[in-house]
Amino acid sequence: MKRVCVTGAGGYIASWVVKLLLSKGYMVHGTVRDPCDEKKNGHLKKLENAEERLKLFKADLLEYENLCAAFEGCIGVLHVASPVPSGHVSNPQVELLDPAISGTQNVLNACLNAKVEKVVVVSSASALLVNPKWPLDQEMDESSWTDVEYAKSIQHWYAMSKTVAEIEALEYGKQHDLNVVTICPSWVVGPMLQSTINATSLILLSYMKDEGRPGGDTIENVERPYVDVRDLSEAILLVYENPTSSGRYICSSYLVKTKEFVEKMESMFPGHNYPKIFTEKSGRAVLSSKKLVNLGWSYRPLEETIIDTIKNYEELGLLEKGRSFPS
Ligand SMILES: NC(=O)c1ccc[n+]([C@@H]2O[C@H](COP(=O)([O-])OP(=O)(O)OC[C@H]3O[C@@H](n4cnc5c(N)ncnc54)[C@H](OP(=O)(O)O)[C@@H]3O)[C@@H](O)[C@H]2O)c1
């Protein structure tokens, strides 16, 4: 049976990847920082087929030996783990850059050690978007790279962490003859399987409740590229399974302004505490997923994402009055 490992298995995106792999008959290894943390990882054990085919391993990204143990016997690794900040970053080196960059290097070294055949590294659209040289009116494709020095100068540590990690991962693949493919998702939305709340879901929730909405009734009207977490998991598996995949892949479905997004939410689920005033914020990020679509990827309508997401928040009790969120 095909055996693969997913890093950071309990996270938002990784949980959907694990669920998809289990549904397709894979034996799945998952790395988590604390297998006994039921709040973070308990949902994984409840996934269909998990009892027979999911095994969790304790591994921080900075623990090479533990990663080696988790990858043993695996033909593929889907490297999803990397910190996604939901607030102020006080020590970027320790909180973001080390786990993203050294962590990815450890993952790749451990892949080589375990004779893994193919690695998919989940990067980010932020590894393309912070590129002041790209013409504003031109659709962005995989040839765009975030300018690392510029990202550093504006203290966009997340973009810097993802860009350096991705550049080094692709380089590592070439140098060590390891099949490394990267995928760059835009803003990921959709239902959550985990019971903690990840950074992007927290922002979507803040559109419906004013708890944690810094501007109160006022919100920035940003044009943002989105992708559904379930479509992204399909893309990760597609890139992994397709023998012709190579290089990097943008994974993004829709470009929507916040106002339009909120209005869609409100038209389908009225009565929540939606923001009322939108202040214009310039900047466009037209991303092309043509390369991924040519590989066979397709995505669901945005309305379906919004409906499923809000129903999921309702089921989890997140929209109840007085319910506040941990960061
Ligand atoms: N959400 C988005 O919009 C988006 C967009 C583009 C790319 N991505 C990328 O997608 C991946 C997953 O993000 P997500 O949205 O699913 O966020 P998430 O739920 O916060 O997942 C992040 C995962 O990384 C793990 N992690 C962080 N630091 C680690 C370390 N030092 N050692 C081991 N594991 C560590 C976390 O483990 P713990 O549970 O132990 O903290 C968690 O499982 C990341 O690579 C992110 O950059 C996300």
Walk me through the structure.
The chain has a seven-stranded parallel beta sheet with strand order 3-2-1-4-5-6-10, sandwiched between helices. The chain has one domain: NAD(P)-binding Rossmann-like Domain (Rossmann fold), CATH 3.40.50. The termini are far apart. Helix 1 (12-23) packs across helix 10 (229-241), helix 4 crosses helix 5 (92-113) and helix 5 (92-113) runs parallel beside helix 8 (157-176). It is built from 13 helices and twelve strands. It is of the alpha/beta class and 327 residues long.
| Name given to the CATH architecture | 3-Layer(aba) Sandwich
Largest sheet: 7 strands, parallel
**Distinct bound molecules:** NADP nicotinamide-adenine-dinucleotide phosphate
The chain-level structural class is alpha/beta
Work out the count of structural domains.
1
SSE map:
Layout (H helix, E strand, L loop, with lengths): L2 E4 L5 H12 L3 E6 L5 H8 L4 H4 E5 L5 H8 L4 E4 L12 H22 L4 E5 L3 H4 L18 H6 L3 H20 L2 E7 L1 E3 L9 H8 L11 E4 L1 E6 H13 L5 E5 L2 E4 H11 L8 E4 L9 H5 L7 H14 L12
Parallel strand pairs: 1-2, 1-4, 2-3, 4-5, 5-6, 6-10, 7-9, 8-12
Antiparallel strand pairs: 9-11
Provide tags for this entry.
327 residues; alpha/beta; Rossmann fold; 7-stranded parallel β-sheet; 13 helices; globular; binds NADP nicotinamide-adenine-dinucleotide phosphate
Concise overview:
The protein has 327 residues and is α/β, with parallel strands linked by helices. The chain has helices at 12-23, 38-45, 50-53, 64-71, 92-113, 126-129, 148-153, 157-176, 199-206, 229-241, 258-268, 290-294, 302-315, and strands spanning 3-6, 27-32, 54-58, 76-79, 118-122, 179-185, 187-189, 218-221, 223-228, 247-251, 254-257, 277-280.
